[in-house]
Design goal:
Length: 242
């Protein structure tokens, strides 16, 4: 067994997830951790996962998250991943069968996509220590753009060597680019997505994400399903709403 947690985050991408999860199940990994970042109106991935009946698949669902904030969802996945080595994948990625033979992380290096050159930037193969050293993804970035580059930059500044993944080993299922901006309120209606990318770069420069920055705190509650948990933040508010 490869002692790796494959991690992904999802919101209303069930059709894509249904087509990619069989590829991930071909690998002899410790677990496949899925954070379903949703509110009560969203589709649940559990309808896909439960029939597969594979104990390696673990689902963490949120409640009342009416906006899609990938940085927060990814940090939640990394916090609760069980393996020291974590492979974060966008939900629309599949891997060649020799991916783990061609790639491995170490204490001194991480493996990533190339956010500046290729659309497959939503991949990082790293360790728990690296995640903790830089405090994970920048949760100040509430909208699409620059989150991966910011993370790579902070890892490099912390002394970890960046190594690019062999993208011959990673396939990306193409989709309408507007899907990246859904659930982001007014931003989704804008015709100039580059504005958000520049805004996030400015935000990273003016408000650097450090180990002193406070990540969202979660309460994890086990459900009736052994491989499914519920993640709740701001617990008092959620209890009142329910």
């Amino acid at each position: 067994m490869t002692n790796v947690s494959i991690c992904t985050v999802i919101r209303n991408r069930n059709e894509i997830f249904r087509s990619t999860i069989p590829n991930w199940l071909h690998f002899d990994v410790f677990e496949i951790l899925v954070v379903d970042f949703k509110d009560d109106a969203c589709e649940s991935v559990w309808d896909i996962v439960e029939p597969l009946d594979d104990p390696r698949i673990k689902v963490i669902e949120t409640k009342h998250e009416y906006r899609w904030i990938s940085a927060i969802a990814r940090n939640l996945a990394c916090e609760y991943a069980m393996s020291d080595k974590m492979l974060m994948l966008d939900v629309d990625y599949t891997l060649s069968q020799n991916f783990f033979e061609r790639h491995d992380v170490a204490d001194y290096k991480f493996i990533s996509g190339d956010a500046e050159q290729d659309s497959r930037s939503g991949l990082i193969y790293w360790t728990k220590n690296q995640f903790r050293t830089v405090n994970g993804y920048n949760e100040n970035l509430m909208y699409w753009g620059h989150a991966d580059t910011d993370l790579y930059n902070r890892l490099s500044q912390a002394g970890f060597v960046q190594e690019y993944a062999d993208l011959k080993c990673v396939a990306h299922r193409l989709h309408d680019r507007n899907m990246s901006f859904e659930n982001q309120i007014a931003l989704y209606r804008s015709s100039d997505k580059g504005v958000f990318l520049h805004f996030n770069r400015y935000l990273c420069d003016s408000m650097p994400w450090t180990t002193q920055s406070e990540k969202i705190k979660w309460s994890l509650i086990q459900t009736e399903h052994p491989n499914k948990s519920l993640a709740v933040r701001n617990l008092r508010k959620h209890i009142q709403r329910e």
